[in-house]
Specification:
By secondary structure, the chain is an alpha+beta fold. The protein is 24% helix and 36% strand. It comes from Streptomyces alboflavus. InterPro entries: DUF3000. This is Enoyl-CoA hydratase.
């Protein structure tokens, strides 16, 4: 669905996404939207870039159903995938999934954003290389898949620019970048990885 052809609340939400101001380390571009999740959708891809290296990447999709959706408890839904490579010893931390989930909820709360019906998964994956690839060191990756319902204003439009900024805060945190503002002590960043993310 072309964003400019949707109903006014959806167009306003998309315009806010397009106008959001983000950290310079984040490269964002529009990508193809899913067709069957909702009548209207708008999708973005983003990467946290340090020189030639991608430290983390992800996708954020805004869904809109003017008739509402029982599972969403609203007319808008945000769906995301975030991933980054980790040091193997960090990936072995048994508390890592819980910590990564609190980074998402904490990023939203830090910007004063109310959301409903959050759900998601945190997945750790490890790769070991053999044969012609045996010289590569083991690689570990963390992946967050999540969705939540952004609270709407009285005009029926959520603050999508703020939700995008919070999502980018999560991307930067999982990439190991320091927060822009001083942390209150409850924020822990991942250490930088040794090398570039493999594709």
């Amino acid at each position: 669905m072309v964003a400019d052809a949707g109903p006014p609340p959806f167009r306003a939400a998309v315009d806010a996404l397009r106008g959001a101001r983000l950290r310079p380390q984040i490269e964002v571009e529009q990508t193809r939207s899913p067709k069957r999740l909702a009548p209207y959708a708008y999708a973005l891809e983003a990467a946290v870039v340090d020189g030639e290296e991608d430290l983390a990447d992800g996708r954020l999709v805004l869904l809109h159903d003017p008739d509402g959706h029982d599972a969403w408890q609203g007319t808008f839904r945000l769906v995301t995938l975030v991933r980054a490579e980790l040091e193997p010893e960090m990936a072995a931390d048994p508390l890592l999934p819980e910590v990564c989930w609190t980074w998402l909820t904490g990023a939203l709360a830090a910007r004063g954003l109310a959301c409903g019906e959050p759900s998601g998964t945190v997945t750790r994956a490890g790769s070991h290389y053999f044969g012609g690839l045996a010289e590569r060191p083991p690689a570990s990756q963390i992946e967050i898949r999540a969705s939540w319902t952004p609270r709407e204003s009285t005009a029926g439009v959520p603050d999508t620019a703020a939700h995008l900024a919070a999502w980018c805060d999560l991307l930067c945190q999982i990439a190991g970048l320091p927060p822009v503002a001083a942390a209150d002590g409850s924020v822990v960043s991942l250490p930088q990885r040794r090398g570039p993310r493999s594709t």
